[in-house]
Amino acid sequence: MSQSTICVLLLGVLGFAMSAQVAIAMPALFKADERAHAAYAVALSQGTLPTIDTDIPDDPVRYPQLAESLFGADEAHRDIWVANHPPLFYVMSQPLVWLGDAVGSPGLTLLGMRLLNALGFALTTVMVGLLARELVPRRPAVPVIAAAMCIGCGAMTFLGGGIYNDGWSSAAAFLTLFLGFRMIRQGVTRERLIAAAAVGVAAAGLRSTGLVAVFFLGLCVLVAMWLREPSLRTFLRGSFWRAVAIAACIGMAPVVVFGWFYVRNIQIYGDATASSSLFEKFGREPNGTTLFQLVNPEFYGHLLGSLWTDGNIANTWSQAAVIVLTLTVVGLVLDAAAKANPRRTGVLRRISLAPQSTMQHRQDLAIWALLGGYCLLILVNVAGFIAGGGWIHARYAVPFLPFLAAGAGLAALRLGRVFPLRSIPTGPHPGPTAIDEARDLRIGLGVSLAFMVVGLVCHLDTEQYVDGPVSSTFALVALVAADLVMFAVAAYVATELRRRMRPGTFDAARTLAAPVQTGAVTEVAPSRPRASTATSSTPKTP
Question: Where is this region: Disordered (predicted)?
Fold first, then answer.
């Protein structure tokens, strides 16, 4: 396992610890929609697939927290209004419901569902890092910065501490895209197709937006098989229809497994996601058109700012969003200027990277374009939801994190050139590439630690509760213990990052750019030689 992957996994562990601290300390059913999500799982355990008009169980003996939360609720909020979501997350929660019933502790079910979501958000953090590596394979510090940015987004770990299906749905969607990008990098094989189809089914069964990831998975298959042909004309005349058939099979897998649920939504509510019925149920008023939202700067400000201010996080944390986004834009502009007109010294100097072949360059462009298309389609979907009367929540901004975090990583590595490199990498003759890799690691470590500090300070800046879902005489002790564990994990992760992100021991970009052996797998689309895939002999800018 590469050093960058280990660092990303460590940051995922820290994300889980931070979300677990919220899950343990926060009062039961405190967050918006938690009551409805928990009731969905309870209804399934009773043999009922609920609708958005199904009553939340009002049983003060068996489910006292649910019954207590219904006091003073209006008629619409006494129903399981999240029943428009597919049932996979709630099926995953069934062992937790049965465990709570078996031991007579419904609070244990609520805590378990929170921790289940926390695990999903931890995996989301890991997948953001791995997707960043696919976007920027020659800058091994970028995945670590990207994963650390997820920790620094205060709303991410707070969302992970609630009962939501967003953690696992985001992780499954990102894993679906990741497997598609792997096929672009390493080729389309039967084994990868089976794995991608299975993950795509899970993504569609967790949330309707997973269908968007499945659609782009099919596009990844088409692009992967096209890039392995000598030319586009050869692809269109040869393996095009075979690629279309394979992509269609991947797209049909979720339809076969979960298509019935979306058909059921259409029959009951008139559309696959029940959006219009929910707007009517809660009396939401339209807020312009989709196009109006797409050209409205406030829409983007609220959407991206929600990653730092969602939930009970103070609005002052929107300043963190402004700072991060401003530095990202400035850094990317400087990076583009350095590529167009590099200088000998300073922040605009040329960065020496490992050689890259023409094929690898085309793969980079294809992956950036596909992820950009995915984000654009999700953006249109969110804009339509807000135009219909919906509200912006941080979980609607999570799909954009791989794109944003990779861009922030590149910007940080460019802006970090402002500071001089104090020591030269050891070796007989360290070349410019080794020096630039060492500089990247120093910058990456500093930026990653800064994001970790921001995330932890955000936790301290919010109100600490001592009334978690599992009642205990030692609630305050449990809260203090959760805080200590969280900071202990943060200290361990920081130490490990510092130990691993050292020149000479961390992943070398040239290793990541080298061809990857597929092993004993069955090649579906064997590669054919291109005339223009020879490796460049000169280092290229990122």
Answer: 519-542
